[in-house]
């Protein structure tokens, strides 16, 4: 032994080879021991006869609650979770089966129209939480979302009687039946429609309460808002798209799309907003952090209750504009920023450019960043 160490000391290169071999041998021994213990209570005799060896039990891929365990990396340790994209947005929507809806321009929106518009959701890569009061439409939507990874879609069946906005349905019907009440299709004529638009905020509250939002920000998105993408001149057929926060989005504000002059409308009384159908912003896309969205929901529900107490209600757009009138703004709703888009932007013509403005800007923000990343990689 002493001789061995003496010879080891003599040649430093040889010494390192011997030490390495020694360590390697130790590692192999420890590994075999661990494997043996892993096999359970086998005696060494059984180990010597491979035929008696128990089959190795595959790793259980689910935890005690049946939830999938995190994937293991190549060396067997837990895989690092991907860092969350701080610009990511959880998208919330709802479809209630209201039947055909008459529009201001005399057209009628039917279920088949929604089914067609819904196709755009198959291309949306964000996490989507969608509520339906009907199994058939839920199944259709589920089928459309199949093109995205399963964990990107959360579908919830609701009963509209569970949505507090529908508690007012009878009162709203009576109000709209009054010949003196303003008549704008559908928001001051179709009571179900009016309640359904207000119910967006019952749903947003549920989404937050039920903990479905894992991102910092969330947005309401009307189920038909992206219908312009069905035109191939606007969007490449079946191409995936993503919604991300626009550059310099102020997290202290609620993001909306401007459709009317805010400076004038914010000076009106809530009744004038409903009576003259004058609104500052659209309601089809509402963006905010969880914290600001909670504040906005609270302001919205308070405004909705106050309007109904005074026998007035219209669509969500009108309630939003009412929040920022002198009478109601003193309650301190979160500040809102209304984004403005011009006709023809994004290759889209008509009022839909304005109504969908912020949603299209979020789509464009993600596209611009993706292009910049490609360029940086020399692609
Ligand atoms: C994995 O764990 C679940 C939940 O504890 C259990 O029901 C299941 O039988 C386990 N599977 C295996 C292969 O051990
Ligand atoms: C919805 O709720 C109402 C009242 O609670 C009930 O009568 C109805 O059957 C429910 N509908 C569904 C589809 O669950
Ligand atoms: C973001 O909005 C808040 C609230 O309106 C405001 O106080 C703050 O100055 C804004 N921040 C920036 C960077 O504009």
From TrEMBL:
Residues 44-81 are annotated as: Disordered. InterPro entries: WlaTC/HtrL_glycosyltransf (IPR011735). It comes from the Eukaryota. Keywords: Membrane, Transmembrane, Transmembrane helix. The chain crosses the membrane at residues 16-32. This is Protein HtrL.
């Amino acid at each position: 032994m002493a001789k061995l160490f003496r010879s080891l000391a003599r040649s430093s290169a040889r010494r390192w080879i011997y030490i390495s071999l020694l360590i390697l041998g130790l590692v192999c021994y420890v590994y075999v021991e661990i494997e043996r213990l892993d096999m359970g209570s086998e005696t060494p005799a059984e180990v010597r006869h491979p035929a008696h060896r128990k089959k190795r039990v595959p790793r259980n891929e689910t935890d005690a609650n049946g939830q999938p365990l995190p994937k293991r990396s190549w060396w067997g340790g837990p895989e690092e979770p991907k860092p969350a994209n701080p610009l990511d947005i959880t998208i919330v929507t709802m479809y209630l089966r209201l039947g055909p809806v008459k529009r201001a321009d005399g057209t009628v929106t039917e279920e088949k129209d929604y089914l067609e518009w819904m196709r755009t959701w198959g291309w949306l890569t964000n996490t989507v939480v969608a509520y339906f009061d009907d199994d058939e439409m839920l199944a259709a939507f589920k089928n459309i979302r199949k093109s995205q990874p399963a964990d990107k879609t959360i579908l919830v069946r609701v009963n509209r009687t569970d949505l507090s906005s529908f508690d007012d349905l009878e009162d709203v019907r009576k109000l709209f039946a009054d010949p003196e009440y303003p008549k704008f299709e559908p928001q001051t004529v179709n009571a179900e429609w009016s309640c359904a638009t207000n119910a967006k905020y019952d749903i947003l509250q549920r989404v937050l309460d039920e903990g479905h939002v894992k991102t910092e920000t969330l947005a309401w998105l009307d189920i038909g808002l992206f219908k312009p993408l069905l035109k191939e001149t606007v969007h490449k057929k079946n191409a995936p798209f993503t919604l991300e926060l626009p550059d310099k989005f102020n997290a202290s504000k609620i993001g909306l799309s401007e459709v009317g002059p805010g400076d004038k409308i914010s000076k009106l009384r809530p009744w004038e907003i409903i009576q003259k159908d004058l609104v500052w912003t659209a309601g089809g896309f509402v963006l905010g952090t969880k914290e600001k969205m909670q504040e906005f929901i609270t302001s919205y529900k308070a405004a909705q209750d106050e309007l109904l107490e005074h026998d007035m209600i219209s669509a969500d757009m009108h309630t939003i504009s009412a929040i920022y009138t002198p009478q109601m703004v003193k309650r301190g709703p979160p500040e809102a920023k209304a984004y403005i888009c011009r006709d023809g932007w994004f290759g889209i013509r008509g009022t839909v450019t304005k109504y969908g403005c912020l949603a299209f800007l979020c789509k464009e923000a993600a596209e611009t960043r993706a292009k910049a990343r490609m360029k940086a990689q020399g692609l």
